[in-house]
Amino acid sequence: MAVETPLKGNIGESIKRKEDDRFIRGRGNYLDDIVLPGMLHMAIHRSPFAHARIKSINTDAAQAVPGVVAVVTGALLAQHKLAWMPTLSGDTQAVLATDKVRFQGQEVACVIATDPYVARDAAMLVEVDYEVLPAVVTPQQALQPDAPLIRDEKEGQTSNHIYHWEAGDKAKTDEAFAKADRVVKLDTFYPRCHPSPLETCGIVADVNSATGHATLYMTSQAPHAHRTLFAIVAGLPEQNIRIISPDIGGGFGNKVPIYPGYVVATAASLLIGKPVKWVEDRSENLISTGFARDFHMSGEMALRNDGRILGLRVKLLSDNGAFYADAQPTKFKAGLFHIVTGSYDVAAAHVEADGAYTNKAPGGVAYRCSFRVTEASYLIERLVESAALEMNLDPADIRLKNFIQPEQFPYMSATGFEYDSGNYPKAMQLALDKLGYKELRKEQAEKRKKGELMGIGVASFTEVVGAGPGKHYDIAGLRMFDSAELRVHPTGKAILKLGVKSQGQGHETTFAQIVTEELGIPAADIEVQEGDTDNTPYGLGTYASRSTPVGGAATAMVSRKLRDKAKKIAAHLLEASEADIEFDHGKFFVRGSPSKSKTIQDVAFAAYTNLPDGMEAGLEGVTYYDPPNMTYPFGTYLVVVDIDRGTGQVKVRRMVAVDDCGVRINPMVVEGQLHGGLTEGFGIAFMQLITFDEEGNCLGSNFTDYLLPTSWETPKFEMGETVTPSPHHPIGAKGVGESATVGSPAAFVNAVIDAVGHLGIRNIDMPVTSDKVWAALSEKGAAE
Amino acid sequence: MLPAPFEYHAPHTTEETLELLDQLGDEGKVLAGGQSLIPLLKLRFASPAHLVDINKITDLDFLEERDGTLRIGPLFRHKSAERSSLLASRYHVMADAAPQIADPIIRNRGTIAGSVVHADPSGDWGTVLLALDADLVLRSKSGSRTVKARDFFSGPFSTTIEPTEILSEIRIPAAKPQSGGAYLKLERKVGDFATVAVAVHLQMDDGKVRSAGIGLTAVGPQNLKAERAEAALKGARLDDATIKEAAALAAEAAEPKEDHRGSVEYKRNVVRVFTERGLKRAYERARGGG
Ligand SMILES: Cc1cc2nc3c(=O)[nH]c(=O)nc-3n(C[C@H](O)[C@H](O)[C@H](O)COP(=O)(O)OP(=O)(O)OC[C@H]3O[C@@H](n4cnc5c(N)ncnc54)[C@H](O)[C@@H]3O)c2cc1C
User: Fold this and answer.
1) Shortest Cα distance from B192 to chain A (angstroms)?
2) Which is nearest to B196 in space by CA: B132, B95, B100?
3) ipTM of the complex
4) Contact yes or no for A649 and B186 at CB 8 A
5) What domains can be seen in chain A, in order of their start residue?
6) pLDDT tens-digit readout, A206-225
7) Is the CB of B31 under 6 A from ligand 1?
């Protein structure tokens, strides 16, 4: 049943989300809802150790459990050349361990059984004889000369070092530092966190042993790319693989990689001849699938005495886990981390990055983030805060002084990004006004006299999203274009098929609205389909805020293609020349006589019933869109906190978020995305940590230890917007799914530092937990 | 959730339950709200062969004040404690604690008795009962016995209850005029167990403390009773110096361990700060304020 709405769904209208009806009523169709006849269930036996040599594996006891159909080990996979698979960063990853286990929770054996309980019972009976090896849990430790070699199976690999990568101009940066009045430094760590979608990852693999056709229902953010990778990894003919990504309960980057469970379930279905389902539980998701961040960063900023930034020097050490499996465009080793100059006009910058293997889960996914822009944004915003503190400048003023100015766009940054558009001072001023910044600074001064701790945090982020120009951005060689296919039926109703894949972002509504705007068909009459590779045009998928910049642009372009044809048909119906036909929101009319008109529905009907001579029937089309540039959303976030000196607890009193994502298609959907992102940013800043002990045991393996914020403790968000359209996007929109996670952590941390900076405290690494705040206060003699 | 196999029983009377438990011995486990037991089954940290679900027994969900005693039944749930006007008006430490337990969904099912028997050193109700000097009635097929809350806990997740016994009633001395209490809990988010929590109960008598109860959560192998701090308050006037001294003694009584929630020093300090604040709040309430 469609939601009744008086609005048609043009751009700028907050119509209700078309997909919510089925989700709210519990009628969605998620991976775990899929049940096929004869379906078997798979459970994984995982390594209890972070680093150990496998001496032997005994599966007899597991095999003997009634209901067990097969036990798969790495040795068996090796016979089919499937024990290892390629990663998205050009490395290899074990599907099932054969020689060593390299992180706690690594996949060692899989049990296939007639029901999930039996599979789990039997998985616990797999016996593995391990020789435990010393674990490497930090990249600093990994790069010591005597560190145990984690990837000893890799030819030519003699250390745990993975890559060295540089961006920017070193000589020019050195010059800027030589001229500087002041240099401000900050070492900070962006801790390992996890996207933790509420739905964990899973697959139902259904390989027909007679035809060789593989239907893979998979929690995939990128079904088309996954099909191609499956074809390459498993050696299956691509036309025989159909990936169906059903409703997805959140992805946040976690569902971009291909996981061992997918591969084993598919191989098992092929060998056994029955469908095989695998769904991980919460702990499996947290300990083994794509994590995020884990960047050790050190920044130096060269400044003039008046606060003008002259140069930026950044060193990065990334912890990539046991396999270099970061999900990122192939030309970049640390994603887009080199966007680290942020919102500021910095003449010279140089970034040096190194990656290291550790005995931790691999992944390095862009958790609600466009390829490491989150870490970059955090570092620059924290550095600017340090500069303001050390130079006794107001954190808002120093930003206003250094912003790229509106007239400088398009702006070429020192590390090679061409920012498309922006008006940073305007967004900041709006945020300051909304907050009542000056008044709060007065209150803070009063409070400080009484010994009370209050802080105001400022962060002005700039994102880079919408990969990408295919020339520069590809995943495993696949250029990062995206696609839209639009079919308008004779009755004027339409189906829009996309290469991207929603995981909760509201595509069924937002992309319908683009068609509504361009063709005048009400959004309620447009069905949006995604996720089935047999039924949608090829695309690279949804992550890194690329759906609206790329898939949305494709939607606008295909709509325009159809509109051009519709115009010809309208001219035929109105017996006028095409040149005299005008179009306005679903109506074609002859210039000068608007009363003589045909609706898009009339035209659609004619496309199948009454065509001009020589014209092909139908009103359908497909567009593959390769964006000319990325889009650069931005905004200013302000946070007010109060700190309890007795417990170190930080209470977020207020948060103002002003975002500019260009043209807003459905403002309510945009706001929903921002609320979600701000909440996650709050969680990352204050409570989230996947940490490890010295033996490499993961200490964040469930939701009692890895905390997700709820509506109870999350602050109320006061939202604001400015609109600076993207000049190159067909409807002026920029991506917005991730702005808030990218921009907000620094605002929260800056607020805490603003409250305690006068005591000489310069940094508290995330998560900023109450015990860390209290310890910092205590060290300065300022705790209760 | 994929637990190990178990057999499920759902008796309709307490007698039937006790009979079953007697037969099953070590193999049986009572299922009340399930909010601690089910997670253990899920993680396969526990795999009892038999579960005895007591939720079908109709007369176990009660809270009543009778003969100078507040009596709590085995199926009295956290949410009922949270909504009780009796507790809100006179048993402040309980009324404070209830809404700070877990989250609303867990409070809808979890029981006070289940929490006490589970004996998680980070659980809140045991601490509250220590401050209130409660008695626990343990019943088996062969009879019943009463133990003091302070004699009940014997270590992390362990108590003196026998597998054949149920906790059939919690008894608390009825609150008198001039009494007040408070429960202060430091948690990392709503729904989290305590990093540190402090329960305070005061019985005042003409400006002097007649008796004081102080319980500590998550700072030892079990819920702790800060007996030296309680003794220091007895008979004293609650001036700042007395409060500070008692708070320091409570902090000394704590035996915290360092973990990802904080250092030993930090947790001890929070005990001190919360004891101070808790005593002040309880005192206010005893005088009819707050
Ligand atoms: C996410 C989460 C957060 C939580 N947060 C908190 C918190 O902040 N503070 C807190 O205190 N608790 C918290 N809890 C635990 C919660 O309070 C449980 O409800 C409580 O500990 C157990 O009560 P129950 O009725 O659910 O018992 P069950 O889980 O049914 O049983 C627990 C144990 O007690 C035994 N048992 C139960 N009733 C009896 C009886 N009458 N006689 C004999 N044995 C019995 C069972 O056999 C079992 O061993 C949390 C739980 C979860 C899952």
Assistant:
1) 7
2) B100
3) 0.96
4) yes
5) 34-136+202-288 (3.90.1170.50), 295-322+331-354+378-405+422-465+631-779 (3.30.365.10), 474-625 (3.30.365.10)
6) 999 899 999 999 999 999 99
7) yes
